[in-house]
């Protein structure tokens, strides 16, 4: 019985430390600009380059019109949507980053993506918390 209690304490301490270390970040896409056709063509590339995206984080897209559509790199490059099923039309659209690697998002409204309403990010694995 004694060792069971001890194991429980160790387990709970482990869970607590994991919860502390993983502190998920909500990234507000475009910050105050939100998700728009940007005046500055580099808005979303600059925004993404200043951040680290980790598995467990989420993206928050705030918009008045349009949508958020996750696309392939090819679709991102050509502002094309092969899979309309991934479109989210309600704002704020919150997308959880569940897998590492490159992720691409565009607004699928005609003309919006080619005017730079598009976002590419690289998501990394959760850190091991060894400080
Ligand atoms: Cu749009």
From TrEMBL:
Any matching Pfam family: Cu_bind_like
Keywords annotated in UniProt: Disulfide bond, Glycoprotein, Signal
Gene3D superfamilies according to UniProt: Cupredoxins - blue copper proteins
InterPro entries linked: Cupredoxin, Phytocyanin-like, Phytocyanin_dom
Domain of life: Eukaryota
Molecular function via GO: electron transfer activity
UniProt keyword annotation of Disulfide bond present: yes
rRNA-binding recorded as keyword: no
UniProt domain Phytocyanin: residue ranges: 25-125
SUPFAM superfamilies in the cross-refs: Cupredoxins
Cellular component GO terms, alphabetical: plasma membrane
Region forming the signal peptide: 1-23
Name of this chain's protein: Phytocyanin domain, cupredoxin
Organism name: Helianthus annuus
Lineage: Eukaryota, Viridiplantae, Streptophyta, Embryophyta, Tracheophyta
């Amino acid at each position: 019985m004694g060792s069971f209690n001890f194991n429980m304490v160790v387990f709970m301490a482990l869970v607590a430390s994991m919860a502390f270390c993983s502190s998920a970040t909500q990234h507000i896409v475009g910050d105050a600009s939100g998700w728009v056709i940007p005046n500055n063509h580099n808005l979303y590339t600059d925004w993404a380059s200043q951040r680290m995206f980790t598995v467990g984080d989420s993206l928050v897209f705030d918009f008045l019109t349009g949508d958020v559509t996750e696309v392939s790199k090819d679709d991102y490059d050509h502002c094309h949507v092969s899979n309309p099923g991934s479109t989210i039309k309600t704002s704020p659209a919150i997308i959880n980053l569940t897998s590492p690697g490159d992720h691409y998002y565009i607004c699928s409204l005609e003309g919006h993506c080619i005017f730079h309403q598009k976002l590419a990010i690289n998501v990394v694995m959760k850190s091991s918390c060894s400080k």
